[in-house]
Amino acid sequence: MAFLYRFELSLVNKEIPAVIVADSDDEAFTQLDIELEKYYLNLPEINEVTLREKKRITKKVGFILDE
């Protein structure tokens, strides 16, 4: 069963969101590292990673992303 994970990453000068699909928490954090390495040529300094939301993915499901 897959889950949608919404992370918030605190960098030195800004906050960025990240969305990951994974089967477990460990896989989600591992995939987050992989996606960061793919996105940035030079990995920025990350002060904090916060898991904001975890939702089960099924058919006919929607998500509202609002702080």
Write the layout of secondary structure elements.
Elements lengths: L2 E9 L3 E8 L2 H15 L6 E11 L11
Antiparallel strand pairs: 1-2, 1-3
Describe this structure in words.
InterPro entries: DUF3906 (IPR024998). This is DUF3906 family protein. It comes from Cytobacillus stercorigallinarum. It holds the Pfam family DUF3906. With 67 residues, the chain is an alpha+beta fold. Helix content is 22%, strand content 42%. The protein contains one helix and three strands, in the order ββαβ. Strands 2-1-3 form a three-stranded antiparallel sheet. A hairpin with a 3-residue loop joins β1 and β2. The longest helix has 15 residues, at 25-39. The chain is globular, with a radius of gyration of 13 Å. The termini are far apart.
Count of distinct strands? 3
Largest beta-sheet details: 3 strands, antiparallel
- Mean of all residue-level pLDDT scores: 91
Order of helices and strands: EEHE
Going across the biggest sheet, name each strand in turn.
Answer: 2-1-3
* Spans where pLDDT lies below 50 across 5 or more residues: none
General shape: globular
Which oligomeric state applies? single chain
Helical region count?
1
Percent range of helical residues:
10-25%
Distance between the termini: 26 Å
Rounded Rg = 13 Å
* Share of residues in strands: 35-45%
- Which class of secondary structure composition applies to the elements? alpha+beta
